[in-house]
Design a protein that fits this description.
Elements: E1 2-6, H1 18-28, E2 32-38, E3 56-59, H2 67-78, E4 85-87, H3 94-106, H4 116-121, H5 127-131, E5 141-144, H6 147-157, E6 161-165, E7 170-173, H7 176-190, E8 194-198, E9 203-212, E10 217-228, E11 234-239, H8 243-256, E12 259-268, E13 274-280, H9 288-291, H10 297-305, E14 321-323, H11 333-342, E15 344-345
Parallel strand pairs: 1-2, 1-4, 2-3
Antiparallel strand pairs: 3-15, 5-8, 6-7, 6-8, 9-10, 9-12, 10-11, 11-14, 12-13
Length: 361
């Protein structure tokens, strides 16, 4: 049995990657034991009775509670649930897990993570400075801890601008009034710093890949977004072949010496090279799409974690595409209650003793 803990289990209108990562792993590993680590008892993948839900699931403290709170909760879970491998699927977790990597190793939990330097270099606030020597265009991005300073920075860049949180959320602001509203909305949820970014108009492209930690690529897949949600998430995409884009990706990953999965988001203004506007330090929500066309990067990542030589993956065939659709997940409120009250779900809703849920504030 291969015991893998996976986070990021929400599959709503702003889907997280965890359920797609688990689906990809099940395509390769029949003996997978999927341990869901959830931050909310209403994360939809917890209740997918069609085979998509985790074998077991546990509530975790929110990442903002810090590394020690995360480790304490993992120690509670480990009392009854062995974990061999961990695949974090959310940006906000990475700082905690990088800090905890020696502690995870001491507990026998393997996890592929980028260096803290690489995480910091690709952060939204640092991306413009990082990209300049690589000859990779990127929209100008500036950060501030208060709305007045951010408004002054927006005037330097020129409206319209995007107002972004450190980890998540982005709003288009065409006036100072809209900027202040966006700042307040983001700061109330994600705190400061808040970023203001130059707007570029063009086609959007995403590149999913896995870096080997030495500056090379183990695999990648490039798509052009064909449909987007109001939050900018790709709802449909088509595989493309673009050598110029591939070279940009190679320069970025080589400079970062990136270890593990990533998603690069580009925008293509007509007549100009692709401009990098964001790098996400984890697998994207559309990761199961390339897995279905023989480019299974979560399986490659798990083989790496297991100490195996990952099998070479074929390139994704240009023209293959995905279209996401929504379904209603049906469950019983007893399952939600079990997850909420006990902090875990180890099977069908039955009375029993679970590890304590821990402090999630």
């Amino acid at each position: 049995m291969i015991r893998v803990a996976i986070t990021g289990l929400h599959r709503g209108n702003n889907p997280q990657p965890g359920a797609a990562v688990a689906a990809s792993l099940r395509r390769r590993f029949a003996d997978l034991h999927d341990i869901g680590l959830s931050y909310d008892p209403l994360e939809s993948a917890l209740y997918c009775h069609d085979g998509g839900r985790p074998d077991v699931a546990y509530l975790m403290p929110f990442p903002g509670a810090g590394a020690q709170a995360t480790l304490d909760r993992l120690d509670e879970i480990l009392q009854s649930e062995p974990i061999d491998y961990l695949i974090p699927c959310l940006d906000s977790e990475l700082d905690n897990y990088i800090e905890l990597q020696p502690a995870l190793e001491a507990r026998g939990i393997a996890c592929v993570l980028p260096s803290q330097r690489a995480i910091d270099d690709r952060a939204k606030a640092n991306l413009y400075r990082f990209c300049q020597p690589l000859d990779v265009p990127t929209p100008r991005t500036l950060a501030a801890a208060d709305a007045d300073t951010l408004a002054a920075l927006a005037l330097q860049i020129g409206y319209p601008v995007y107002v972004k949180g450190r980890f998540y959320e982005a709003h288009l602001a065409t006036t100072p009034k809209e900027l202040y509203e966006a700042f307040n909305a983001i700061a109330s949820v994600w705190g400061t710093q808040v970023l203001v970014q130059e707007m570029a108009v063009g086609e959007e492209y995403d590149v999913l890949g896995v870096g080997d930690g030495q500056g090379g690529l183990l695999a990648s897949c490039s798509i052009r977004k064909m449909l987007r949600t109001s939050a900018g998430k790709g709802f449909a995409g088509v595989v493309i072949a673009d050598p110029a884009l591939d070279r940009q990706v190679e320069r970025i990953i080589a400079a970062l010496r990136w270890a593990g999965p990533f998603e690069l988001e580009f925008i293509k203004v007509p007549g100009q090279p692709h401009a990098l506007f964001e790098m996400n330090p984890r697998l994207p929500a559309w990761v199961d799409f390339p897995s279905q066309i023989d480019c299974n990067m979560p399986a490659l990542l798990l083989e790496w974690l297991m100490g195996l030589t990952p099998a070479a993956l074929p390139p994704c065939e240009p023209g293959q595409m995905f279209i996401r659709h929504s379904i209603d997940v049906v469950t019983h409120i007893a399952e939600v209650a079990q997850m909420t009250i006990s902090g875990c779900r180890t099977g069908t809703p039955v009375a029993g003793v679970c590890p304590t849920r821990g402090d999630r504030t």
